[in-house]
Write a structure and sequence with these properties.
binds pyridoxal-5'-phosphate; two-stranded parallel sheet; globular; seven-stranded mixed beta sheet; 362 residues
């Protein structure tokens, strides 16, 4: 408790690793002898280009990204990707989407502006509390891609097995699970992630795209900024990038590499999530609605027996140093986001609080 920081269970922007924040704090007045912070530095300077190159190299090492994929950093957050994906990948004007909750619904609504969208599977019938069977989807021959939200941040679900796309390009929104576990990049045509969930500060997405999907024959009305090729050709420096986010994310990539990489992170995340789910499951007071096999290790939605008690829970938990446990306004209830940077201590402390609250209110 060196800095008196709270246990922050926010879904995003969310916690960053403390050693990374300490390094950033040390460097904020004078980065590496430059006499300035990275916030004040030209993106064309050698020093910043080195920061950029190192961040890309570290991400490639961390995820074992094959050589035929490009890594780009794009501003605009996750929401811009809902448009950029169809703008760039709809060649025939047809795409398949799996509807698993709030973020896939937003992606579907946006994609419909650009072409024909076929919802090939949905878990709407049970309020998005599970991942539908995607082993035999009805995918039209001319579909340009199959799109999933691999971890639904609000609904708390994740895929244990990727859809069978029958040879079509798989596109995945990994925003709230990016770098939480090993990922075989070759299974995807494109992966994107808004970084403020599991990596760094808000305002940027990482896009990992297979080179053959980069096109220069887009609709001429497509903004230059919205073409992946613009960013790929310019190494994310077509215009001024989000230098600060690139720098902070680079630090997190390095930190993960130094701490055992994604295998180690996955093991920690499994252990951490088990502490919380095990408690919720044995309790008759709390309810964790998501089907066991489809539960997210990152976002854990749960409820007490009533909306009044949920509100009371938020109030009391805040008093003792737990922040952001309120569920998303669209679904209500409670939610604990326990990303990479949340220590196991934090989850154990939360479970202690859950016990006390249950004893007081059951
Ligand atoms: C947060 C989130 C988004 C949207 O990100 P913004 O940066 O707020 O636009 C998209 N997809 C998922 C899965 C998210 O968790």
């Amino acid at each position: 408790m060196k800095y008196n920081r709270s246990y922050n269970f926010s879904a995003g922007p969310a916690m960053m690793p403390e050693p990374v924040l300490e390094e950033i704090a040390l460097e904020v007045m004078n980065y590496n002898g430059s006499g300035m912070s990275v916030m004040e530095m030209s993106h064309r300077s050698k020093m910043f280009i080195d920061i950029y190159d190192q961040a890309v190299a570290d991400l490639k090492a961390l995820m074992n990204i094959p050589d035929n994929y490009k890594v780009i950093f794009v501003q605009g957050g996750g929401t811009l990707q809902f448009a950029m994906v169809p703008l760039n990948l709809m060649k025939n004007g047809v795409a398949c989407y799996v509807e698993t909750g709030s973020w896939s619904k937003k992606a579907i609504a946006e994609a419909k502006k650009y072409g024909e969208v076929k919802v090939v599977a949905s878990s709407k019938d049970k309020n998005f509390t599970y991942i539908p069977d995607c082993s035999d989807l009805d995918i039209p021959e001319n579909a340009d891609y199959v799109y999933i939200c691999e971890n639904e941040t609000i609904n708390g679900t994740t895929y244990s097995k990727l859809p069978n796309t029958k040879g079509h390009v798989l596109v995945s929104d990994q925003s709230s699970m990016f770098l939480s576990r090993p990922c075989n990049v070759a299974d995807y045509g494109l992966i994107w992630a808004g970084v403020q969930k599991n990596v760094g500060p808000a305002g940027m997405s990482v896009v990992i795209v297979r080179e053959d999907l980069l096109r220069d024959d887009l609709d001429p009305k497509c903004p230059i900024y919205c073409s992946y090729k613009t960013h790929a050709d310019a190494d994310s420096m077509y215009n001024t990038p989000n230098c600060w986010a690139i720098y902070c994310c680079g630090k997190v990539f390095k930190y993960l590499l130094d701490n055992g990489g994604l295998e180690a992170m996955n093991q920690k995340n499994i252990d951490k999530a088990a502490v919380l789910y095990n408690y919720l499951d044995q309790s008759k007071f709390y309810n964790a609605p998501v089907a066991k096999e489809d539960r997210s290790l990152m976002n854990v939605p749960f409820t007490t027996p009533s909306a009044e008690l949920d509100a009371e829970f938020v109030k009391e938990s805040k008093k003792v140093g737990f922040d952001n446990l309120k569920g998303h306004k669209s679904v209500g209830g409670l939610r604990a986001s326990i990303y990479n940077a949340m220590p196991k201590d934090g989850v154990e402390a939360l479970v202690d609080f859950l016990k006390k609250f249950e004893e007081a209110h059951a």
